[in-house]
Amino acid sequence: MEKKLNHYNRISALFFLGVGIFFSFYGRTVEIGDWSEPGPGFMPFWSGIVLAVMAVFLLLGSFKRREWQAMPPFFPLADSWKRVVMAFLAMVAYLLLFKIIGFTLMTFVFIAFLLKTIFPQNWKRTLITACATAILARLLFINFLETQLPLGFFGF
Amino acid sequence: MLDILSHLGVGFLNCFQPVNLIFLVVGIVVGLLVGVLPGLTLVMGVILVLPFTYAMDVTPAIVLLTAMYVSGTYGGAPTSILFRIPGEPIHVPLLWDGYAMAKQGQAAKALGWTICAALIGGLVSCVIMVTLSEPVAKFALTFSTPEYFAIVLFGLTSVVSLGGGSLTNALISLFFGLIIATVGVDATYGTPRFAFGSPILMDGIEFLTVMVGAYGVGEVLTRLGEGFTTVPVETVGAMKTRMPSLKEAWGIGTTFCRSSILGTIIGIVPGAGATIASFVTYGVEAQYGKRKEQMGSGIPEGIVAPQAAATASVGGALIPLLTLGIPGSGATAVILGAFLLHGIQPGPQIFITSTGMVYTVFASMFLGIILMSIVGYIAIKPLVKILDFPESVVSTFIMLLCFIGAFSIRNSISDLWLMVAFGVVGYIFEKIKFPIAPMVLGTILGPLAESSFMTTMISFQNDWTIFFRRPISGIIMALTIIALFLPLLRKFREIRHDKQVT
């Protein structure tokens, strides 16, 4: 569904207003000081205040503007949201299992999942690419560049 | 001057050491590929190569990244001219005259003008960079914290005012970045802020994590949501490059000079990178050029101006990075990250402590630009063929490299969670038309701004007027105020103009 810029601006203004208020209030728990003697909470406090003020400007502007600019939909295709959410969940799963299963095996599963379900490829290409990527990444980053990537309980 | 030349001579010799030369060539080729692929931006490309540099010495690492940065400003030009596919936003102005020339059957000539512009623009900016850097660094040695604070503040302001879009959105993005930068233990008093007891938040949020997430993961999610809608590449039969004659190039010498110098100056301004340089110089050419009425119809000036400026901006952007430790663009922010990861803090001292390394990087820029032009000339066909590679597969590799890159910064899984979170932020920002660059610059310059402000207040008996009373910081503060009010003035003029019209 087509949305207007003002619609997005209103939501984001409310979000940033919340962030600004939260940070400026939380900033008060550390010493703020004043302009002549700033404390550790000075910068977060004032950044939060300015953020909140700008968010209010954005909110007011979203009501005032006469010519509302049409925006492309947040998810442009019918299955866009599914792809984005699945990619996000794949990343979350990768992070949850990365340390336990190990970099090489988890990379194989992650790449294979992305190639088969989100960036659709045939099985042959999926398995060859996932396998080659996992092995090459392991050799390059763990063996050659000695990056401290987790090896998991399988040891690879 | 003789000192500079002798250091540069040593730099050239260092460049020919096998390891430096190999990484120079690799950087040039990878930069060209990054420029060609539409799903991969220049900044993202430099970020993705960063994990490969962790195990290297600092000199080849910086040579690799700067070579990528230089050639990335040219890489997308052939596809813009031949297929109307700009690999980078930098090359959008090339669509207007470059593609028009190609349609008139002069594709080879258009490609030749592009290489010529990148070569001359790049070399001019290198000469300016080498000439100015050491004097600027010597001058910067006299700077104290008020001057540093003023420069950082100017950088933060210029990214907002040069952004082009909504000033409110840019300021929100900037202050969001500044808030992110305050997470962790405060550098002056050692007080934990917004850490909520988490050890990783106590160490603060690394700006590289924010960059990898917002630029890397965010961009992949955006392209994924759009379904990778790259235009299919047509086959171009005679894909050749024909260089302009010396007489032809001399004929538009003013355009070459103006764009190269302007590109370098724009590169120096923090926050204004190759894209702004390319658009601004095209606009200047359309306003003041000899054949301004014919711009857009397929004339060489319309190709030379944006391309020369884009490549020239690289030399410009390296000046504040090396002399003051302040990155002028997204790519130089990553290069700053590479320096820091190798335990080197760029700034005026670097010209005393690491002269050899600095001049090797300078020399590699000269060689890189020449090499880029040669590769661009002879390898046009294989370069363009890269577009046939499925973007979806490239995206999976990008995601994997993002994970490895973010993990390798501190060997921490928590950084990966933060990266994914900033990937989502980057995706949402892209969708709601909030600029990402101010947020990223806020996370980079925020700690610098805070520490220089705090140190100044402590050193100068909490007298904030010191920022305005010292001559250099006073001038920079005045420029900052002008930069901040310039967009408001522009808007006010637009409103007045609209009222007069109606």
Low-confidence stretches of chain A: none
List the uncertain runs of chain B. Answer: none
Give the overall silhouette of chain A. flat
What order do the helices and strands of chain B follow?
HHHHHHHHHEEHHHHHHHHHHHHHHH
Backbone structural class of chain B: mainly alpha
Textual characterization of the structure:
The complex is a heterodimer of chains A (156) and B (502). By secondary structure, chain A is mainly alpha-helical. Chain A folds into two domains: 3-71, no CATH class; 80-144, no CATH class. Helix content of chain A is 68%, strand content 5%. Chain A has five helices and four strands; from the N terminus they run E-H-E-E-H-E-H-H-H. Chain A has helices spanning 5-27, 42-64, 80-101, 103-118, 123-144; strands at residues 3-4, 33-34, 37-38, 70-71. In chain A, the strands form two sheets. Chain A has a two-stranded antiparallel sheet with strand order 1-4. In chain A, strands 2-3 form a two-stranded antiparallel sheet. Chain B is mostly helical. Chain B has one domain (2-501). Chain B is built from 24 helices and two strands. In chain B, strands 1-2 form a two-stranded antiparallel sheet. In chain B, helix 6 (92-103) runs antiparallel to helix 15 and helix 11 (207-226) packs across helix 21. The model of chain B has no long low-confidence stretch (mean pLDDT 83). Classes of the chains: A mainly alpha (156), B mainly alpha (502). At the A-B interface, helix 1, strand 3, helix 2, helix 3 and helix 4 of A face helix 9, helix 11, helix 20, helix 21 and helix 22 of B.
